[in-house]
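Supplementary notes for students who missed Thursday's class. We covered one full example, reproduced here. Read the sequence, then the structure, then the short commentary at the end.
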Amino acid sequence: MKFVIAPDSFKGSLSAKQAATAMATGVRRVFPTAEYTLVPMADGGEGTVAALVAATGGHLVPVTVHDPHDRVVTANYGLLGTSNTAVIEMAAASGLQFVDPATQDPLSASTYGTGELIKDAVARGVDRIIIGLGGSATVDGGAGMAQALGAHLLDSAGRELPHGGGALTRLVHIDLTDLDPALDRVEILLAADVTNPLTGPTGAARVFGPQKGATPAMVATLERGLNRLATVVKRDCGLDPSRKPGAGAAGGLGFGLLAFTHARLKRGIDLVLQFTNFAQRVAGADYVFTGEGQVDFQTQFGKTPLGVSRAARQVVPGVPVIALAGSLGRGVGALDDDFTAIFATPSGAKGLRQAIADARGDVALTAENVARLIKRLK
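Structure (token representation):
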């Protein structure tokens, strides 16, 4: 028998690799001689680097960069073991983990550090960069990222704008003379799970700004700045990706990458499936296990377990797919056609802290009990 085990992380308790190992541990107690293929998964957000590095035998690269408020920090990106590809989570340098209620300032938060990660990967000669757009502390339209790569964003006096979305209201001219020419030879794929445009009622400032601590007055300033950025990009660079679905991802970083590099937007789970060679690994599977921290009605809109199930059944039609989750939310019934069964993993009533502490053992125990059912029914 062949078991393919491909979960996302159980946020706050287990990484995707840890979750996969726990599931395999439980199933192996019942089927010790079976074949096991572990493929940790992600959807382009947190855990994407770890999942792809683990699945391909790659490694992490530490880089000294600037966080959203220009403090010097160390951030990692991954180099895959199966291709000349780098994978970057923008949150590694520009994420919410670097700010708290006392330090957050959405007007000055910048994606400059993400640009530094991209610059380092390009300097290493990679052919391709996958960038996960999620978890950002920024609403600067990717301006800081562009500045790190050599673009000059200038005010009416020809001075470089300071970092942050608030300064974009003073943008007059963009000079790309010093933009890193090596970017032209690198394929850049953007992993996004949102379709928001850059500006407007569903744009980066109005939808995501408040999540990053922006007051209504700050949101208005950020919206003006993003509109100004889109206007100047259209005039000086000859293109306008501001209305493209996903341009507003990560505080508008999607727009900046579409505007200043040859980037293309993709669904995060599709990229992870592609670069883990999931189709090849799932071939011949008798059972597929997947899962994440919570499975609910949102899972049907392209989250990792659904992507795994549909990809597996394209290769092995009718293969049983079992999802394990730390909790089951409303609307799980909508997933009946995509999963053979869905199980919650907690072993009893317990508080959140205890559930997190018990997660590894509980996932293994649930997987073991599912395997016992499989054995009895065979």
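Commentary. The mean pLDDT is 94. The first strand starts at residue 2 and ends at 5. If anything here is unclear, bring it to office hours.
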